[in-house]
Structure formats: structure tokens, C-alpha cells
Design goal:
Length: 277
């Protein structure tokens, strides 16, 4: 996701131009999205107690290398890893390290693979062993909020409709939507127009048009929405240290609705739901 600061420093954003992609773009995004989703599927079996997140980072790096792809985050604004691993009260941009995962952790893994210049960006929530009921509920609502956002992703709706739908699902459960990071256009660029806020007012914002390609990636907190960035310059955590969850798809708007580029080939987009299925 990107910050408002990123948004203001980007030339394309300043011009406000939202690219409309044709078949070439959709074909490129299909390949990049499919490979990213396959990598996130493979990662599922590595997410268990005792495994350091650095190991998961290496699995993604090697998968990318062996499949002719490059993780977009390596050397991105000084970031040095193939993916982000955001545990428990970490909202996003958690940095992989040697600390082992522990039973009861929940971890978001966010991966962007570049294939033939196109960016496939997706993240999921992985439970480690048995997790608490409140962690389960947070994950369920986070996925439900993305689903609600996706339902609005079609011509005739606006970016505000997407945000409002996500916000309504989270707040109905007395959870909160993080404001500081938003979804984003992508394609040959990692972060492009439009911004996709995960809160808002129906009917406001940008009208959705066929050919727009962007992510939806709500971050939902059990407590208050406020975040702070740790001294490493990346890790965003909840100020009140309550649990946070996120999931992300890359999509393209079509004439009649949308196409999801990052669907899981193994039906593992929600690992918690897949477990009980
Ligand atoms: N994949 C993230 C997103 O959804 C961005 C990660 S940027 C990083 O936009 F540098 F922190 F990796
Ligand atoms: Co993203
Ligand atoms: Co991402």
C-alpha cells in the first residue's frame, strides 16, 4: 500500500491521470497475478510455529528466481526483502527476520511479483497453530470487508462506494479501518493512480471505468484505527497494540464487473477458512 505522502510526490498522481489498460495489460496482469498467488499458496505450508519469517522470505525469493520473476519490494525505497510479514499488532510493512513464529500468531504475508514488467500484488492472513477466537473473528471480518469492496468494483460505482462498503462491514463489528495506507493503481508501475481508500462515502470519489487496474487491501484493527511507524522506518503498528489484519487482491475493472488477477489456484486465499473446509 502507499501513503498519502507517496501520493503527493508522484508525477502521475499530481496530473491525476488514471491509466485505462487494454487487453495487453490484462494479459500481463493475469500472468503476474497468477504467479504471485501460486507463491502465496506454496508459502502456506511454511507458516508454522518455529519457522522464522526470514525463511518464508527466502522461499519467495527462490520461487521468484526459479520462475523468471522479481519481487517488486527488493530495493524499493531502500526495502531489502522479497515480501512483508506483519505479525499480530503489526498493520503492514513488517520486515522478515530470524524470530520464529509462535503458536497463536496471525501473520499477513504481502508479496508483489513482477512478471514481464507487470506487478501482481496480493496478501493473505495466515494463522499459526491454534489462534484465539478474537483473532479468528478479526480475520473473518477482514476478508468479508474485502468481499464487500469487491462487490462495488464495477462500472457505475465509484472508489467511494468501495471504501464505504469496506468500512460498513468493519464498523458493524466494532472494528476499525486503518486510514494511513490505501490501495493503489498498478500495472507496469507498482503504485499508480487511483488511490483506493478503505473508508468513505458512497457515490464520492472516482467513477470506475473498464480498464482501471488497482488493488483493494483493507487493514482492519480490533481496536482503534491509529498507527505508528517503528524506528526501522517501515514497520507500522497499531498505537493501542490491538491486533490488525489485512488481505489484498489485484483486480481489473471490466465492462460488466471486475476480474481478480490474484485468485489462489489452490483455494487458499483465506488460509483460516481453507483449514476448516
Ligand atoms: N505490497 C505492498 C502493497 O500492497 C507494498 C510493500 S512496499 C514495501 O502495496 F516496501 F514495504 F515492501
Ligand atoms: Co498493494
Ligand atoms: Co501488497
Amino acid at each position: 500500500m502507499i501513503t498519502y505522502v507517496d501520493a503527493s510526490t508522484k508525477a502521475r498522481r499530481a496530473s491525476g491521470v488514471i491509466p485505462l489498460h487494454g487487453e495487453e495489460g490484462f494479459e500481463g496482469m493475469r500472468k503476474a497475478g497468477a504467479l504471485t498467488a501460486k507463491a502465496l499458496d506454496i508459502i502456506t505450508e511454511y507458516v508454522e510455529a518455529g519457522v522464522p519469517t526470514a525463511t518464508i522470505d527466502r522461499v519467495a525469493y527462490e520461487f521468484a528466481r526459479d520462475n523468471g520473476a522479481v519481487p517488486a519490494t527488493i530495493f524499493y525505497r531502500g526495502y531489502r526483502h522479497s515480501l512483508c510479514t506483519s505479525l499480530n499488532h503489526v498493520v503492514c510493512h513488517g520486515i522478515p527476520d530470524e524470530r520464529p513464529l509462535r503458536d497463536g500468531d496471525i501473520v499477513n504475508i504481502d508479496l508483489t511479483l513482477v512478471v514481464d514488467g507487470w506487478h501482481g500484488d496480493s496478501s493473505r492472513m495466515y494463522p499459526v497453530g491454534e489462534i484465539s477466537r478474537k483473532a479468528e473473528r478479526l480475520i473473518e471480518i477482514t476478508y468479508a470487508s474485502l468481499e464487500a469492496g469487491l462487490e462495488m468494483a464495477k462500472p457505475g460505482k465509484t472508489t467511494g462506494d468501495i471504501g464505504a462498503a469496506i468500512q460498513a462491514v468493519a464498523e458493524a463489528e466494532r472494528m476499525s479501518v486503518v486510514r494511513d495506507f490505501v490501495g493503489h493503481g498498478l500495472g507496469r508501475l507498482f503504485h499508480d493512480e487511483p488511490n483506493i481508500m478503505h473508508f468513505g462515502t458512497p457515490g464520492t470519489g472516482v467513477p470506475l471505468k473498464p480498464g482501471m487496474i488497482f488493488t483493494i487491501e483493507p487493514m482492519i484493527n480490533l481496536g482503534r484505527p491509529h498507527v505508528k511507524i517503528l524506528s526501522d522506518g517501515w514497520t507500522a503498528v497499531t498505537r493501542d497494540r490491538t491486533l490488525s489484519a489485512q488481505c489484498e487482491h489485484s483486480i481489473g475493472i471490466t465492462e460488466t464487473g471486475h476480474e481478480i488477477f490474484t485468485l489462489s489456484p489452490g483455494g487458499l486465499f483465506n488460509p483460516l477458512a481453507a483449514r476448516s473446509a
